[in-house]
Amino acid sequence: MATSLHETVLIGICDGVIDQKKTTSYCTNKTGDRPDLLPVISLQHPTCALCRRGLSQVVQIYCPLAASQYHRTIHVFACTSPQCSGKSESWTVLRSQCLVDDIKSRQNNKTTACADSAMSRTDWCDEADDWGMDDAQQVEESAIQMPDDSTGEGNDVSSRLQDLCIDGDHQSGLQPTDVPVFQAFYISVMEETDLDGFRDTDHEDELLREYEEREGVKVREIQRYSWAGSPLLIAEPRPSVSQTVPVCAHCGSPRVFEFQLMPALVSLLGSADPDSDVCLEFGTVLVFTCRNSCWKSGSTAPVEEFLVVQPDPDQKLFKS
């Protein structure tokens, strides 16, 4: 599906393996690993609606809205059971928020450390070729900020505050240690219109070749972000995606497309445990979130949002 002329699209690419000795936070954009929670959030680990196994984190995205008073992080989880592969019911997307002032208060008390999200879009990829940043740099430079919304619909995110709760059917007493963990990679972000230029420079091409040889992966788009934009579909479903996305269960507002996971991510989702052989198959995953990003002040539970999994059309060819 083509995007509109006024649509800002951000692309996430793999930006190096996260050293297990490195400390990440809710500001870190990453694939795999265990979720980093906002300091006010408590999470009962989600389980698969089909087989009841614990879900593994696929991506963690820090994505505060423009002019918002909230930090905002989205976690996407999936079941690694082969029987559940490619089914939307085996995935879960959770949105967590926390007032910026609450974080500042904790920083003043030296109980947590995370940079403010007051970065411009042009700052997101500064020095993106310097793989292997230290912890402080990574926290500061890994933030994704919300694209500007020319309609203004996304700016007043606190206008509707409703009671929120997470669906108990998807929660359990599981501990994070009970579920498989995918290897962790940093996600670096750039505008889609800059991607070709980034790849075409001799300096960047050499850096990319060195990185690919060192890490054994090909640098390709693993995530596509366009709040209230248009997703790219592998196949047009019947009924259409716009007809199947429900309104927000908490405030009744429409949900809008926020980002999608691209097929190239599949090759990165190997197990963090060398003795384990887990994998995940999909074509693309479309994530839709509340247009108002509604949140009740003082809430400690993530909000479940909506996603659609489109399987790889060729996946059925490899099944017996």
Low-confidence stretches: 1-5, 115-171
In total, the number of strands is 11
Q: Give me the secondary-structure category.
A: alpha+beta
Order of helices and strands: EEEEEHHEHHEHEEEE
Q: The biggest beta sheet, please?
A: 11 strands, antiparallel
Cα(first) to Cα(last) distance is 32 Å
Task: Give the radius of gyration.
Answer: 19 Å
Percent of residues in β-strands: 15-25%
Q: How many domains, as an integer?
A: 1
Total of helices:
5
Query: Biggest sheet, strands in spatial order?
Result: 10-5-4-3-2-6-1-7-8-9-11
Question: Fraction of residues in helices?
Answer: 10-25%
List keywords for this structure.
5 helices; globular; alpha+beta; 11-stranded antiparallel beta sheet; 320 residues; disordered N terminus; 11 strands
Would you write up a description of this structure?
This protein is of the alpha+beta class and 320 residues long. It has one domain (10-318). Helix content is 13%, strand content 21%. It has 5 helices and 11 strands; from the N terminus they run E-E-E-E-E-H-H-E-H-H-E-H-E-E-E-E. Strands 10-5-4-3-2-6-1-7-8-9-11 form an 11-stranded antiparallel beta sheet. A hairpin with a 7-residue loop joins strand 3 (56-62) and strand 4. The longest helix is centred in the middle third of the chain and has 14 residues, at 202-215.
